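Appendix C. Worked example: 3-hydroxybutyryl-CoA dehydratase
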Amino acid sequence: MSDESLHGLYYEDLSIGQTASFAKTVTEADIVAFAGLSGDFNPVHINEEFALTTPFKGRIAHGMLSAAFISTVFGTRLPGPGSIYVAQSLKFKAPVRIGDTVTAHVELIDLVPERKFATFKTTATVAGKVVLEGEATLRVERRE
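Step 2, the predicted output written as structure tokens:
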């Protein structure tokens, strides 16, 4: 694999309004694996009997699992490999359940050339409904 294939877009390649997305259907295995990786075994995620007693009336996926799909967009699509996460704000708007397809979407909204920062509006949706929204800042290398 060449060095070029290990790098996504450079700062000079970015322009306001660029977008990218990633979609994944959440499975039982995803929730169990995320609980194991994160250590978050909150019963609302892993225990159906308990989750039925909550306002959600059933198990829900970890909010940070959906947020991780935003990271996937940044690391693989826009700006892609080589970019570095600097900040992320999140608001969780609705639950995600097993079998839901989450679409993470990012849109470039600001560039700060002196710091090589790119700011993105971030959203995740299920069947068109926003389940997560926020804003992220990434540092993107310039061409040398």
